[in-house]
Specification:
With about 260 residues, the chain is mostly helical. The chain contains ten helices and no strands. Helix 3 runs antiparallel to helix 8 and helix 4 runs parallel beside helix 8. The protein starts with 12 loop residues before the first helix and ends with a helix.
Length: about 260
């Protein structure tokens, strides 16, 4: 691509329009299934942008999308999870570069895949210890491991579901905790000197589309049966976990 629409490098008007619309669908999917909306958007963006742009761009859009979801579901956020998770997340970011540097990504993906399947289908394991301490540990682990594998949301999701009495509690709290993670990553990118000013028009359009998708998704979620939502969530999270296991096996040269 050699065109530039609204100053966005290598993005034509048609591509800009497609990218501006896509988050409405991925955000909607994320709300009504409880998972995978961000992963779908990441897969789409990976077709167009190099990693140096892809990861920061996706992070900013997901941060904005999470913020709009929090606004929509504000009264359903389980606020007691936020501060412990934030403390754990900061600690995880602080030590993440110093520990497990010799542990292979392949092994981590395999461990995470198996672990997520267990806590998804045996929810009792997702309710270990006192609630405040549990989410401090989850915040630490998710942020720490997020430096090595892209499974942060998949790791957090079953714990939030295990603590949620209602699908809207899950949607709201998951958005709040993931927004903390994305915000920490944005701060890190800023400290590393990553500049995305040229992509501001595109990011603004994508965040606005995600807000629309969240709003429509919230209306559908309200009408969904609780049991149906949880079953779809379990099946989808299982597929994502199996994907982690498959990638681990492939990277290990098993096939």
């Amino acid at each position: 691509m050699d065109s530039s629409f609204l100053g966005v490098p290598d993005v034509s008007a048609l591509v800009f329009l497609g990218l501006a619309i896509a988050p409405a669908f991925t955000a909607f999917f994320g709300v009504v299934t409880g998972a995978a909306g961000g992963l779908l958007l990441l897969a789409l963006l990976s077709l167009l942008f190099p990693p140096a742009v892809l990861i920061p761009l996706h992070t900013v859009v997901q941060m904005g999308a999470g913020a709009s979801r929090i606004v929509i579901f504000w009264r359903y956020v389980m606020r007691w999870t936020v501060l412990p998770f934030l403390i754990g997340s900061v600690a995880g970011a602080a030590v993440g570069a110093q520990i497990f540097v010799s542990l292979s990504t392949t092994l981590l993906q395999g461990i995470l895949g198996a672990f997520i399947i267990v806590i998804t289908w045996l929810p009792g394991f997702a309710r270990f210890g006192r609630q405040n301490r549990r989410f401090a540990v989850i915040g630490f682990g998710a942020t720490f491991l997020g430096m090595f594998v892209s499974a942060t949301g998949t790791l957090i999701a079953p714990f939030v579901m295990g603590a949620s009495s209602d699908r809207r509690n899950y949607a709201a709290t998951f958005a709040a905790l993931m927004t903390i993670v994305h915000t920490a990553k944005v701060v890190a990118f800023g400290l590393l000197g990553v500049a995305l000013w040229a992509y501001v028009p595109l990011m603004a359009a994508m965040i606005a589309a995600a807000a629309l998708g969240n709003w429509v998704g919230s209306r559908v979620l309200t009408r969904m049966p609780e049991r149906g939502f949880r079953l779809v969530f379990q099946l989808l999270l299982t597929l994502l976990s199996l994907r982690l296991l498959w990638r681990a096996a492939r990277d290990a040269g098993l096939f």
